[in-house]
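Researcher: Structure prediction, please.
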Amino acid sequence: MSGLKTESFISELKTFLSSSPTPYHAVENVAEILSSQGFKQLSENEAWSLEAGGRYFVIRNGSTIAAFITPQDKSSGAAIRMAGAHTDSPCLKVKPHAEIKRHGYFQVGVDLYGGVLLNPWYDRDLSLAGRVVYRDKQRKLHKVLIDFKRAIATIPSLAIHLDREANSKRSINPQTDLPPVLMRVGEGEEVSFRSLLSAQIEKQYPDLKVDQVLDYELSFYDTQAAEVIGLQSEFLASARLDNLLSCYICLQALITSDGSQPALIVFNDHEEVGSLSAEGAQGPFLRSVLERIYGQGEVLTSVLSKSLMISADNAHGIHPNFPGKHDEKHGPLMGEGPVIKVNVNQRYATSSETSSYFKHLCDLNQLPCQYFTVRSDMACGSTIGPLTAGEIGVRTIDVGVPQFAMHSIRELASVSDVVSLYRVLKAYFVDALQLPE
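Model: Predicted structure follows.
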């Protein structure tokens, strides 16, 4: 595909990654981009009046979003091109009764969200962001997003002098070893975490007056911004590449499509904890959107039987220090193109039909692709693909760019793979979608 300015694309991607520390912020940023490109926001609690070829989006819970281009003629039963990703990433979330005061330090208790790789969280400059629900002076409830945006906490390592086996036998107890340090407190000084949040709300939104913070969903995150690195500037390093990278690629592919074909993207929350929620991929959100576009009858059934879902979620690139962790013929290399993910036990939804179509689309656009399947003696992870396929009965393929350090606080991918996946998805949204017959 000609005309793509890679430097500009990657620069805007870095901004998106750095400004999306939580699923709520990610969805807010996606909605802002969609609105700027002429997509109209719909509300789930109001009737929808959809125009042929119209562009719309809808949000659930502030953390899941779907955007779509309606068909020119619903009665034709034309296939809809769908792509999905997820907005959540493994992280440390603050507990409801957060305050911990020990030996003159103020800390907060944290829970592990998803399969967090814990060691990289030590000695990082951490900030805090998420959603807060508060009551105002008129006794009304409101919700607001906050982001401290600066380093307010850290989890200091224990010095090796105090644990001589730190490099060989140290384990991490998440209950006792991970509470971040926020500040020093004096003897007898009491600190209310909710009061700190009230002050942050009023600092961030000067027109708001908080009577009491009632509850919150807050995550710590690394303040180091996304960056292009490597001697030849070939790598993208950032937090939350799994899976905001796929969200951004799908988003840009949709908004730059010509609208000639019906299309949809959906970014679900809660993938990292199983997807079973009102806004997760194993919930009713996507089906409800499709039913409001096509109705609940034979038209939708016929459309889904012809359609495809591309589930985009990053893959494990072969690590040069640990090549034995991969099947020797299925270890994706960063820089060699998007990965088709295969698992015979349906941890991925890829079939010979859907993989053949994706390979064909890559060939038509002169783009590389490669395979990943886990070693036969190792357990395989999963993603939204099989769950979405099970919920709506659509043929599905799981793909993604290869990366290092999945579930770390800072992950690594290839710039060229990002561009390749964008190009194939952009072609997908305008393709005639001729699946094998």
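Model: The longest helix spans residues 241-255.
Researcher: Thanks, that helps.
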